[in-house]
Write a structure and sequence with these properties.
86 residues, two-stranded antiparallel ribbon, extended
């Protein structure tokens, strides 16, 4: 809910946002840059900025799901470990 509220507030103020795991994937590198103590966790990343009309924004990405042939049966398994859905 916090992430959604931050992103909606940014949009209301004229800024765009993108939630990003890549921003927080390497906490050891982020801690010194953002002055985050070791006893605090970095759990969320949101990139803020202003949208630009550019050809790169219309680049069609190839998704993995488009290259995998469909099969008649798909089995999905979810495992809950330490409170995380894997």
């Amino acid at each position: 809910m916090l992430r959604m509220a931050l992103m909606l507030t940014a949009k209301d103020q004229g800024a765009d946002s993108i939630p990003s795991y890549e921003i927080v994937k390497f906490p050891a590198e982020l801690r010194p840059l953002l002055d985050v103590p070791e006893d605090e966790d970095i759990v969320m990343g949101i990139a803020l900025g202003y949208a630009v009309e550019d050809d790169i924004n219309d680049f069609p990405s190839l998704k993995l799901r488009d290259s995998i042939p469909l099969c008649s049966t798909i089995e999905m398994t979810a495992v809950l470990t330490n409170g995380l859905l894997l």
